[in-house]
Amino acid sequence: MNDILGANNSLLDYALVVLLYGLMFLLIRYPRPHLELNYRTNYFFLVILWAFLMFTGNYLFYRLGVMTFLPWLNNLLHSCVWVGLCLGWLYYCAHERPLWEQFILFAFTSFLVKMAEHAVLGSWARDSYLGIRNPYAYLVVMSIVDGFYPIISQWIIQALGRKSTFGIYAPRLA
Amino acid sequence: MLMASQKHFLLTAQERNLKSYLRLLFFIYVGGVLVYLLPAIGLLPAFLKPYPFLIDPAFANNSVIKMGLFAALCFVAAGDVRRFLVTVEAIMVVMCLAVVSGVILILTAKNNYVMQVGNSTLSIKTMLLYSSLFDAVLNGILIVLYNKAQKARYGLQFFTPMQFRTLQALSDVLIEGDEELITDREVALNVDRYMSSFLGKTKWVSKLSLVGIELYPLFFLKPATSYMRPEDRKAFLERHFYQDVALRMAPPVLRMLVQAMIRMGKQLCFMGYYNDPRVHASIGYEPFSQRADSKKRLEDLPYQNNQPLQVLAEKDVETDTLDWDGVVIVGTGPGASVMAKGLAEQNVPVLLIERGEHTDPSQFNEDEIDMVSRLYADGALQLAADFRFQVIQGSAVGGSSVVNNAVCFDTPDSVLDRWNDRGGIDAGLDLLRYKQCNQHVNEMIGVSRIDNTPNTMSREEYLNPGGKKFIEGIHNLGLDAAPNVANSVSANIRQCVGCGYCNIGCRWGKKLSMLSNILPQAQKLAGADKFRIIAGCEVIRLKARGGKITSLIGRFRNGRKIDVRGKTFVVAAGAVSSSILLQRSGIAAGRAGKRLSFNVGSPMTAVFPKGQIINSYKGLQISHYLQVDPSRGFIFETWFNPPMFQSTIMPGWWEDHWKNMHRYNRMACTGVLVGSDSNAEVRIAGLTAREVRYQPTQKDFDTLLDGLQLAGEIYLAAGAEAVMPNTFRYHEYATGEDLKRMKYDIKDNSDITLGTGHPQGGNILSRDKSIGVVDEQLKVYGYENLFIADASVFPTAVGVNPQITVMTFADYAVPFVAENAGAGAGGVKVITPEREPVKD
Ligand SMILES: Cc1cc2nc3c(=O)[nH]c(=O)nc-3n(C[C@H](O)[C@H](O)[C@H](O)COP(=O)(O)OP(=O)(O)OC[C@H]3O[C@@H](n4cnc5c(N)ncnc54)[C@H](O)[C@@H]3O)c2cc1C
Ligand code: SF4
Q1: How does pLDDT run across B144-155, given as a tens digit for each residue?
Q2: Binding site membership of B539 for ligand 1 (Cβ less than 6 Å)
Q3: Domain of A137?
């Protein structure tokens, strides 16, 4: 059970995390509450792609020793709900802004959510990381990694949009 | 300055990248070998000391062998990435195996012992995971660089290097003659150009076929096709792709797949070879632009009807949501165009949305590959689910009318009676009005008999010479007496110059197609603001609220979508596509796509004795027909094509095909058409999400054979030295007696190539709601503002060329659609006088 929920965690803790995701989603959605016709496929594609990549990546990187273990439920919710749905929408709202702005936005929101997960579920904890002896080092580095979401997404969308693979539409290249 | 020959040997930038990467790999592997050997000579660096497996002799030995071998292979390959390409391929294959075996062991190995690494431990599975990931990354990069290098070397745009090589290898053995004028590489490059030039849902089939052909020999423990020596390759293809299929030696499913693969491979090679202008003179073909009398013909026959047409492309459509205060029509084929023109005459604003692109007739040219990729749906490669039946349809502004032969037949009375039979389909057509519409359409599109109109095809030289041979045979057999009708065709063509390019677009404005005639006329009448055409936009869904269509979603080729709202919607995307659209939109579930039918066709080719040059390619592609007693169920139409098209239907393999293509100018050809039963179906299924399921009924198949036999007899009576149906196994028949054998040689549809350009039905008109998709007004059951006006509403196959019937239906429905859109006089409501209430 520890592997699934994490030590000392109950489903109530997870409900709290999901509530937080929901509130963040409301905030993220604020500037653009509706998916435009031409962004729908891109959005759902990115949701599925990132959820899958995150879920498997988190585990594989743990096996490689680069990351700490995320309890399975934590990994699932974080990958699917937070990274998939919420960051996907954030990208929808922000993708026309300059890349550096997007980078900061993603890294920062990600940091907030990781802090919350850390506080509620005790995950994302590591005493030192990359030689930095500070419990926040790991959290900060992982959030910075999330800052690359818009850069990688843009590259993927433009590459696939060139031939409209999977129905992806990349207007600037059209 | 570099000489051209020197340039040829220069590596491309991508090949240089590959070379550098191989060098890097060499150093990585040599480094690996050293790491394992250092302990033996007491030189293990301190940082490697925590890793005990480095000094495990068995482990070290295996790793040194593996890495040493890889290092050697990389060294060799980096020396000359072209010459030693096969070495790169070997590295890729072995590395893939290493990764696969690593994954299998991680998942299955029971003995997951733990090693001490410094202060911590490492299980053997984790180590395997690391090493497999490492191999996967190295190999992934190698595969990407290899592909890029190969694509850059040949300038490939569609095929992968392996598929390209297979194509080259196939061409090497399939195109087999004394003097091949272009190289196998050039053939393969021509095909690559073709396949990359159009967007299609079935293009992957060609890739899959080539991969299948490449790897199939591995099942027989033989090298892959492209690695075989040419003689062995030919022997293998003959044994396993030809004989196993022709003699039914392979199990049925395998036989179907193998046959599909080789048919596709064969077609591609012939396309690549015979479309090349360097080959044309060798088969006795002269393009129109080079014929001695072309200029004179164009001067003698000056009529030119190409009229300007304003068409919007993606960039012209500024917003993603369009509100159209009128009728929105899907498609621009004959059904859509006649409907649009009728509405324009009643002042109804019309917006047409077309999947294909707009090509101005002035852009039409003699390059068959170019034209087919621009004007046909799926580059004319649309196949039924069993890969044995080809359905070709146009896809361009103007629909199939741009590429059709313009042959016109009124809907036969017997067919109308069958449709209206109240015990049967019960179409409930008002026959009097229907016939008026039929007459109206003939006038509107300018139908005339091509040898009977002053100033048109009256002169002998412009009739197809092959067609005349056919008529000669008919006459010799006495088949031109009633009830048979043998004649030159009626067509919406005026002052044809006989270039023979009807199926790749009439550049000269002689064919009165929708593109150059009806659509421009309608636009002129209504004004470009009230008559708009958006091209390159596929309608993917109709959105409904209750029983009302609110809008449709169209998608451009770059993925951009538009939402188009309108008052009334007319689907006229042609048979197959219209049914798919309804299915995608959840409309007429369980009925849309059913009862699909065709005019199934197969050609009979005749070759005339040496010295009798016929040049059937010079002249109208379909010039004559023979309609025998209707009870026999078939109709003949002469048909001849420019070389590429003809090569794909030319009977024969290996040297037989070569020999036949080199008798091209002594040949004539006739298509036998049979109106099939409505036993086919199209549905969203299969890998293309567009699956046509069709197997001819025994009755239809026998009728077709009957027709082919008679076609053969006709040509033999005209003096042909042999006739050949388009069978999988090659057969030539030289006498009437011989021909009797044909029925035994062709046992079922796997033995012969069948195809159609005339799909019909799928959304049939019937007053019986359990089978009908549309009612007598061509309105879709259950929807107040949705109509269908194309070949998909035919209750059964019409048995003759369908375009007039398509247009008649559209013309018939115009008042209903106009009224629905709030315009028009209304009042055309009288249907069959004895009409009964619509069945529930
Ligand atoms: C090579 C060839 C030769 C032929 N010769 C003759 C002949 O001599 N005489 C004769 O009577 N008939 C002939 N035909 C058949 C005849 O042309 C067709 O029966 C007729 O054109 C059918 O008209 P339609 O309006 O139903 O569909 P089509 O002409 O097929 O037009 C449908 C149009 O809709 C478009 N479309 C499809 N799906 C969508 C979508 N989802 N969104 C937007 N647009 C879409 C297509 O691109 C196409 O342009 C021939 C056909 C071919 C292919
Ligand atoms: S043969 Fe066909 S393409 Fe050529 S001019 Fe006549 S109608 Fe046009």
Answers
A1: 999 999 999 999
A2: yes
A3: 41-167
With contact defined as beta carbons under 8 Å apart, do B329 and B570 qualify? yes
Residue A24 lies in a domain: no
Minimal CA–CA distance to B638: which of B618, B657, B616, B660?
Answer: B616
Tell me the ligand closest to B501's alpha carbon. 2
| Contact call for A174 and B558, based on CB within 8 A | yes
Q: What is the distance in angstroms between the CA of the first residue and the CA of the last residue of chain B?
A: 81
Q: What is the pTM of this model?
A: 0.88
Q: What angle do CA B483, B489, B493 make, to 5 degrees?
A: 155
Q: Could you tell me the sign of the dihedral formed by the alpha carbons of B453, B458, B462, B467, in that order?
A: positive
Q: Is residue A18 part of a domain?
A: no
Give B462's pLDDT tier (boundaries 50, 70, 90): low
For ligand 1, atom 30, name the residue with the nearest CA: B574
CA distance B558 to chain A (A): 5
CA distance linking residue A143 with residue A138, whole number of Å: 9
For domain B447-501+594-762, the question of CATH label 3.40.50 is answered with no
- Specify the CATH number for B306-358+513-593+765-824; select among 3.90.650.10, 3.50.50.60, 1.25.40.10, 3.30.450.20: 3.50.50.60
How confident is the model over B379-408, as pLDDT tens digits? 777 777 777 898 999 999 999 999 999 999
Least confident of B261-270, B356-365, B376-385, B547-556: B376-385
Q: Is beta strand B350-353 parallel, antiparallel or unpaired with respect to B531-534?
A: parallel
Q: Within 10 A of B755 (CB to CB), how many other CB atoms are there? A: 22
Q: Which ligand is nearest to the CA of B402?
A: 1
- Cα-trace Rg, chain B: 31
Q: How many other C-beta atoms are found inside a 10 Å radius of the C-beta of residue A157?
A: 23
Q: Which of A29-33, B303-307, B579-583, B661-665 bottoms out in mean pLDDT, i.e. has the lowest?
A: B303-307
- Taking contacts as CB-CB distances below 8 angstroms, the residues of chain B near A64 are 129-130, 133
